[in-house]
Amino acid sequence: MAAGEIFSFAEFEIEAAKRLLLKKGAPVSLNPKAFDLLLTLVRARGTVLSKDELLEMVWQGQFVEENNLTVHVAALRKILGETKNEHRFIVTIPGKGYAFVAKVDLAQDAENLNQSIARLSRENFPAKADNLVLPQTEDLVGRESLVGREREIAEIKNMLRREGARLVTLTGTGGTGKTRLAKSTAEELSADFADGVFFIELAAASDPELVAPTIAQALGVKESVDKSLLETLKTFLGERRMLLILDNFEQLISAAKLLTGLLDSSSFLKILVTSRITLRLNIEHEFVVTPLAVPPRESHFSAGELSDFSAIELFVLRAKSARASFILDDENAHVIAEICHKLDGLPLAIELAAARVRLLSVDSILTRLETALKLLKGGAKHLPERHQTMRAAIEWSYYLLDGDEKAIFRRLAVFAGGFTVEAAEKVCEISDQAEAKPKLEILDGIMSLFENNLLALREQPDGSARLRMLEVVREFSLERLEASGEIDAFRRNHAEFFLALAENAEPHLSAERAGEWLENLEIEIDNLRAALDWSLQNEPETATRIAAASRFFWINHSHLTEGREWLGSTLKRSRGTHHSLRFKLLAGLGTMSRLQGDYEAAQKFYKQGFDEGKANGDLRQISLSASGLGTVAQLRNDYDDARKYYEEGVAVSREANDDFARGVSLNCLADLEKSEGNLVTARDLLCDALTIFRKLGNKETVSSSLNNLGVIAFEQTDFDAAYAYFSEGLTIARELKHKINIIDSLNGFAALAARCGDPERALQIAGAAENLRESIGYDTEPAERRFREDYLAKTRAALDAKAFETACEKGRALLPDEAVALATRRLSADFEDNQFTEIVIENRSISRIVVEDEIEEDKESGKIIDVSPAAKK
User: In which band, very low, low, confident or very high, does the pLDDT at 85 lie, cut at 50, 70 and 90?
Assistant: First the structure.
């Protein structure tokens, strides 16, 4: 601070350079350290300083007792005329420190000409010190800060304190809390602006010409007879150190240049603007106000961990205000997290939803969010209407758009879960341009909507851009689209676009780039759902084609229950559809039913496909359906029937020269041979199938075959081979995000860990595999269950019941990636730590677990002979 500082408060004045405290102009006798303490507190007015900070600032490195500070504070309070029960100037914040809370005017000494002019200006143009509703002294203790916005407040304060940042614009969609954030930041900055902080509401100003009068009115400036109001306003601002908060500037963008003129008129003026869109000024510094943090979906957090997310914190805080007995616990935590997800972390929406706990359970609130705009209302009556309901907040933005922008905004509502620019350009145009209307510039419209914060942007891993509407915004947009009478036309466009995507993806889902294409469909899963839902009701043929083309997606990404529902619904409406399309539905339904353990339904679908294949002479359909029927028979322990179907499948696939169908049949036969104990035959059949699948580039069946080979190698005690098979199978399964194959690989690694003598690790991996299995509704087949039960039996023998359960539960809490890391970490090294031993058998170097009864010493040659089942292959 400059040496000539003069601080005035109440009847007191501090002249820093002369080290004087004056009361009504008369000097007050004051201890030097007490003066330093008072000056420090006044300079930091409105800020809580801890005892340690004050000791360091006043005594500067000297060792002093804390009671020195207490004594000097008491002395100051006595001099300032404070009583025991009324602290007008210095307040104690329990556990935090002290704060000077009285209003302070800052001037410089009379020699400073500029400041003298400023004082004269204040006399000619009187104004309030500020118009913010600042906290009362008694409210400082325990006053809640803006929930989850501490970082943002600090960043905005830093921006405004920088010399080059004189105009800062807070942008963001309606309901993010820009106004509240601006006010809270300004409150914390009030000490930085000696001439006040002024909050100026511009929502009611529809005409850009009203900006200057509105600002002048807030400042108490009246138009002069010889000057325009704007010139008078500029003269008033002069040398004043002032912060103006201009709230809701978005409808007045054409008046933005006025702000440049105001800033040019004063070296010390700063302006903080809230707007849905930037002002497009060179001097502007944008700060984007984003929604509050929500926990990632499908995450496993306790109630305590969830409370660390600001969206959850806000919900709980507001819910407690509505109902004092409300608590966040492990029972309601996941429902509250889903509510905050559905509301995209929007503070206004969360507050309005949380207020409903007065009458509704959180489960009921979540259900009613299907029509969120009906629920999200009832904000405080003293607030502007746009802060009382989410509908009003969104309408405010919508009615500021021009005609073309409104049309594009409405049409984009058909997208669920987001969209690319390319998709929007194809879906949002009317394909029949019979009407003499100019073509809408979709890209320009999207850019405008994005700049107006009606669209959110998410950059994809490949660098491409993906946009989305927040859910409550999309609900409003859908209402507008329905009211326009255009909804069916653009729903149709949308369904046709995603039909093309699904059919384009179909051949790739069984090829080398399957992982990439499966991920493309996963990203668009909400759009696929929307397209299927609309076309089922309006154009069943389109729904049938989408479902048939996407069947491998629902299977390979383990959306089994949902996939069965979509394929089942379309099958019911597929009469008269080409038999090849019906077969895709039947085969998909058979496989998903089987994977969920519904063997009766699986047999019905496979049999229907088999019969229709024979009726139409479709050899592939016959072969694949036969393999499906054989699998169901085997699962029911009817091995004779199973072998009959498998062999028919092999024969028909050879007749058709269909490698894929032959590979499937060979794989099935191998599984049957393994079940009957014929491991060598099973391994040879699997190797043949694996060769076919590798040649075809069908990664899902490659991964599955590798896991099956891993089980056979394990049972033959060829643990190195088992490790290699499970490792490759797991790598491919993770690339495809094929959860069923990941489960099988994890069980393989768990068996190896159990055999290595690490039962706790084995159980953790097994627990993770079981949790993943339950999460997708997968029913393990009998042979896989036996394999799992065998290695679990070894762990039970090695651990007591409590240790067994603890390890299992620890594993169930692991995320899939954590389970994979545990399964593969140093497993091969464990083999070498006296678990797997390097031995030489008949000049062959083999690294495997040494089982005593599987090796013998040749009495004549002295060589070690391998007599294990693995050696006999």
Answer: low
